[in-house]
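Q: Now give one record:
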Amino acid sequence: MAMRNCFLLLAVVLLCGCAPGQPVADTGQVTAATMPQTSTVSALETDTPSPAASEIATANDPAVVTSTVENMSDLVADVTSVQVSGSEGAYQFSVQVSSPDMGCDQYADWWEVLTEQGELVYRRVLLHSHVGEQPFTRSGGPAAIRAGTVVWVRAHMNTGGYGGLAMKGSVQNGFEPAELSPGFAANLADQPPLPDDCAF
């Protein structure tokens, strides 16, 4: 009985010492509650940044929405890598795209191969956004070109259109990043094949 009373008394003392509003002496020790929170980010996770807190907080602010709509032309997709396989006249392209995808309202909806004169050779229509997969790679073909034919590879955003970084080159000599005017062959944006819908 005496032992039980001692435990009850000890419990009361501990509870009183930890009551809200009581000052706590700083012992200089780092505890789990005061330790700075850190996280380990893998190389894969660095390719998929999450929205900043300010973006989340202002997502429903009409001023922010208006500003976003006015700057849609700044939302462009970049072609960051081009790999080609197959044989002459029927090449398969594997294209890496980096784009500011936010879902079906804002996403890269295709990449395409076109001649130096602006004629469409091949278009790979993308059926959904790639929010959690940036940059992403998608393959397509066949592209009916010769090994030495110089072509452009560029991407398109459903909101911003053309205008991002493109790649220029040939199967024979490889591809290099190159600036391409957003107005170059802009009429191709209306030429089929075009996306019918966006899944997500």
